[in-house]
Amino acid sequence: MGIFTQLFGSQQRNGGAQAASAPEAAAHDVREAQVIVVGAGLAGLTAARRLTEAGVSVLVVEARERVGGRTYTRPASDGTLLDLGGQWIGPTQQRMLALAEELGAATFKTYDTGNNVQYSGGQRQTYSGPIPTTDPLASADVIEAMLSLNMMAREVPLEAPWQAASAAEWDAQTVETWLQANVASEGARNLLELGVQAVFSAEPHDLSLLHFLFYVHSAGGLMDLLGVTAGAQERRFHQGAQYVSLKLAERLGARVLLNTPVHTIAQDDSSVRVIADTLEVRAERVIVAIPPTLAGRLRYRPALPGYRDQYTQRIPMGTVIKVQCLYPTPFWRAAGLTGQASSDSGAVRITFDNTPERGAPGVLLGFIEGDDGRAWGRRSQEERRAAVLECLVRYFGAEAGEPLDYVEQSWAEEEYSRGCYAGYMPPGVWTAYGEAVRAPIGRIHWAGTETATIWNGYMEGAVQSGERAAAEVGLALGIAVDPRNETQ
Amino acid sequence: MGIFTQLFGSQQRNGGAQAASAPEAAAHDVREAQVIVVGAGLAGLTAARRLTEAGVSVLVVEARERVGGRTYTRPASDGTLLDLGGQWIGPTQQRMLALAEELGAATFKTYDTGNNVQYSGGQRQTYSGPIPTTDPLASADVIEAMLSLNMMAREVPLEAPWQAASAAEWDAQTVETWLQANVASEGARNLLELGVQAVFSAEPHDLSLLHFLFYVHSAGGLMDLLGVTAGAQERRFHQGAQYVSLKLAERLGARVLLNTPVHTIAQDDSSVRVIADTLEVRAERVIVAIPPTLAGRLRYRPALPGYRDQYTQRIPMGTVIKVQCLYPTPFWRAAGLTGQASSDSGAVRITFDNTPERGAPGVLLGFIEGDDGRAWGRRSQEERRAAVLECLVRYFGAEAGEPLDYVEQSWAEEEYSRGCYAGYMPPGVWTAYGEAVRAPIGRIHWAGTETATIWNGYMEGAVQSGERAAAEVGLALGIAVDPRNETQ
């Protein structure tokens, strides 16, 4: 049960609690390894694991007091395990599915029985199936737009989106511009906007159309991204999604060093040094497995080329506050509802049933995303709680207004994530900086879901990126690294 | 002549030369002041100067071994002073004009006599006046678009661009989208694109239309930005633009600490601590006067609110390589040319006559901007030099191909600027994060040209921001700070 101590043993949160004077510390512990991995999220742990399996000596340095990065599982006041970060896996996420099986991380299907709620123009209606049908004209427009976008997405090369025939045109505009020009009904545009917010935790006007299309292609298609059954929200982990990282870290054992925020990476002809407040590690290669915007904050010696640095200035993190309300039972199920709602207004515009498989307590999950996340992130928790409950009552009735527990996680506040679900590209970035995404700089290699070519932004992408970076480093070291040697 | 020793005494450049192990240094020098200023560019030096004049004790900590930030004056091989960064001042830049007069920084008019060169579709033509007239239809379209954009710009409130009546619409699209929808002829779009590149060192598809309009309004109008005579390029400094910062620093004397890169800012109820590798300064307030994207890279204790942090993820620096070629004489003048060229192709698409007032050596100045800057920044200096000379020969004849000296400065490579001319906003940022631009966080205040409401992105904006931040801090300390007590 060591991993549960690691998970729940400390109430200490990273960030503010850390001593500001740490860089003053005089005595550095100096250690050596063949490869250092910065960041113990799924990408970093996967890279470390593959290299270790190939016989390479590895150290993983992690800023937080925990592993798992953007997956984070905590107990509610009644002990119910809640995923405060990434939580779902679905079909075609082969690496995560295999990893879950290998590590004994049992999954179950997201509750998806009954009708969904649509709240629009102040009216509440219910519908069945994945796309709201309460306004048939809007539904038809939505489906037509989705077909077009799926077709366009397939033309974006996953390894090099900037080589799409229409890359210049698609990267010169926002998704909002495309929606305005190509989707006739406002109702349809509202639904598509909600879909964009749900997938990117950003607004259609924040995103390059080319980035949107790349992301869609990397997942397979829009329904793969948006769907519950047969989509990215299909299954959940009994023990929470962080369990996968905890098990990987358990295997790596003392190779994982927590509470070790790195501030400098220095390389020369013979080695690379990774310097944290109280520790210095020397190695042949380093894999930086943190979001690009955070990688850009480290100090590099020699300084990174301008092209790489400017890329990290241009891939901001999405904005999401994940809220969960606990009730004695999932009362909406008795009313024939899935617990899924979509809305054109309110702090929470998307909800899901996040009840444990055993059926109690009832858990409603809501997301405050994009501009809503930015605005509500500046209010007090009391104000947010009231706004969230107001939404849930609208969607599911008065019973939703009196939860046993209210749990929220605002990812922009997390010093070592600074947003979720992922970094996204505004217009102009893929075409001008795309080649910087994975290109190593000397002894420095890059991992993290933002570098993935499949399921970019998802746990699956993180794992793919870790395997790719491990193989890259293996090649540099002249050591064969099998990217899938235990799982396939 | 102390300032010239400071300016030219050392060939050492910041960045790679600095010891990577500095954070390990054990012994911290601890100093105290009422206010600390981070960054000795024009904004920081102005703030320090105003506070010092009001009797406040100030320390300025600067990462580089020089002051001046994005102004940087160096001698060419023959001793001619070249501005490698910001260099021009023009009408309505009241603070800079007053500062120049006060400090004895003499100016002279940019050479603007004769015809300009336009290179378009492989053809070279000449024209007179500020707007190319070789294609009358395109010229008419350009003028019509500029009038529209100027009118729209005036509707953007400078203190709060997100409150413009059309803010949501304008911030949802790129400038490129607007050009495509509103400018009929391709020739006109090309010219306007060149104007955007020249002003922002970014592409029309990189920029939010709202940001573009704010920026235009903050300067007065498009001709204020683009013009030579009667515009932002009207006058130059005999001793280079950095001279202004050098003189300000000279007055501040020992209050300015060079070679002191800050890594941490920690505040509590009683004070703020600014921590560099070998120095810690304690104060009541700190003014952070560096570009927002670099401010976001520091470590803060407690960590900054997510809203502020995410803003710094969303304001990337422009991309420009400034190149200057020296010749025995300004030979183009004899041919009746101003030295100003605009082109629809090539590495250098904008040139100016940058000859000293005495008339020798002849200096041609070219800019490699936006996507060109990103692409050419990855090539070797030899390749760039060849591409630059090829352009100059096209515009000014064979004589341009054999310069006495070739000098270039790529601002994206500068570790403590990471781009020029300024940070810009992609779509969605002003409307979602605008309130973060100047809002203090506890004891931390923000300066720098990106926080200015007039001449944002220019030296004038830097000075305005320094005066505003000084007044803000004065108010917090209960000390009257006269923002203009010597100059007006």
Topology diagram in text:
The structure is a homodimer of 488-residue chains.
Chain A: H1 2-8, E1 29-32, E2 35-38, H2 42-53, E3 58-61, E4 73-75, E5 81-83, E6 88-89, H3 94-103, E7 107-109, E8 115-120, E9 123-127, H4 136-153, H5 167-171, H6 175-182, H7 186-200, H8 209-219, H9 222-226, E10 235-237, H10 242-252, E11 256-257, E12 262-267, E13 272-276, E14 279-283, E15 285-288, H11 292-295, E16 299-301, H12 306-312, E17 320-327, H13 331-334, E18 337-343, E19 350-353, E20 362-369, H14 371-376, H15 381-396, E21 405-410, H16 429-433, E22 444-446, H17 459-477
Parallel strand pairs in A: 1-14, 2-3, 2-15, 3-11, 8-18, 12-16, 15-22
Antiparallel strand pairs in A: 4-5, 6-10, 7-10, 8-9, 12-13, 13-14, 17-20, 17-21, 18-19, 19-20
Helix pairs in contact in A: 1-10, 2-10, 2-17, 4-7, 4-8
Name the features.
5-stranded mixed β-sheet, globular, homodimer, FAD/NAD(P)-binding domain, disordered N terminus, 7-stranded mixed β-sheet, alpha/beta, Polyamine Oxidase, Chain A, domain 2, Guanine Nucleotide Dissociation Inhibitor, domain 1
Task: Explain the overall architecture.
- The structure is a homodimer of 488-residue chains.
- In chain A, helix 2 (42-53) packs parallel to helix 10.
- Chain A folds into three domains: 2-69 and 241-304 and 441-477, FAD/NAD(P)-binding domain (3-Layer(bba) Sandwich); 73-112 and 232-240 and 318-413, Polyamine Oxidase, Chain A, domain 2 (Alpha-Beta Complex); 137-226, Guanine Nucleotide Dissociation Inhibitor, domain 1.
- The two termini of chain A are 28 Å apart.
- A seven-stranded mixed sheet of chain A has the order 9-8-18-19-20-17-21. A five-stranded mixed sheet of chain A has the order 1-14-13-12-16, with no helix packed on it. Chain A has a five-stranded parallel sheet with strand order 11-3-2-15-22, with helices on one face.
- Chain A is of the alpha/beta class and 488 residues long.
- Chain A is globular.
- Chain A is built from 17 helices and 22 strands.
- The model of chain A is unreliable at 1-27 (pLDDT under 50).
- Chains A and B meet through helix 6, strand 12, helix 12 and helix 16 of A and helix 6, strand 12, helix 12, helix 14 and helix 16 of B.
